[in-house]
Amino acid sequence: MTDQATTTDPAMAAHAFRTAKFGIGAVVRHRIYPFRGVVFDVDPVFDNTEAWWQAIPEEVRPRKDQPFYHLLAENAETEYVAYVSEQNLVPDTSGEALRHAGIPEMFERDARGGYRMRDRSAN
Q1: What is the pLDDT along the chain (123 residues), one digit of tens a residue?
Q2: pTM for the predicted model, two decimal places
Q3: Would you say residue 86 lies in a domain?
Q4: CA atoms within 13 A on the CB side of 14
Q5: SS3 for 57?
Q6: Alpha-helical regions (H) of the chain
Q7: Which residue ranges does the record assign to the Hemimethylated DNA-binding domain (predicted)?
Q8: Strand partners of residue 83
């Protein structure tokens, strides 16, 4: 499924969106840095501040015209929220549970160990 971008950013309007490789609940690892996380939101193209993007060294700065993922992320020392380009993520096939404190609020684990969004309907 590819849709033409509808945006006020001329650079983005010139590119067609592509289907995100990872969906909500997918467990992923960064392809370079030692962290992993679960996807809780997806932007079809870059949607963070220009200052954030410029702070990334130019030689490793990702393209803006690709999906970007919001992760409940963790490494050996800490837990945090990460914003990562699709080009820098790979599937995490370890089967290890994530420990991030925000996971129980957003997700429940299914019988196979996958993460599924909790039903957020009002009681």
Answers
A1: 334 444 445 444 445 567 899 999 999 999 999 999 999 999 999 999 999 999 999 988 999 999 999 999 999 999 999 999 999 999 999 989 999 999 999 999 988 888 999 987 655
A2: 0.82
A3: yes
A4: 3
A5: coil
A6: 10-13, 50-54, 103-106
A7: 19-118
A8: 70
SS (H, E, C) 64-88: CCCCEEEEEEECCCCEEEEEEEHHH
Domain membership of residue 39 as a residue range? 10-117
- Specify the number of domains making up the chain: 1
96, part of any domain: yes
CATH code, domain carrying 31: 2.30.30.390
- The CA-atom distances, in angstroms, between 115 and each of 58, 66, 75 are 34, 24, 18
The residue whose two tokens read 């992760």 is 71
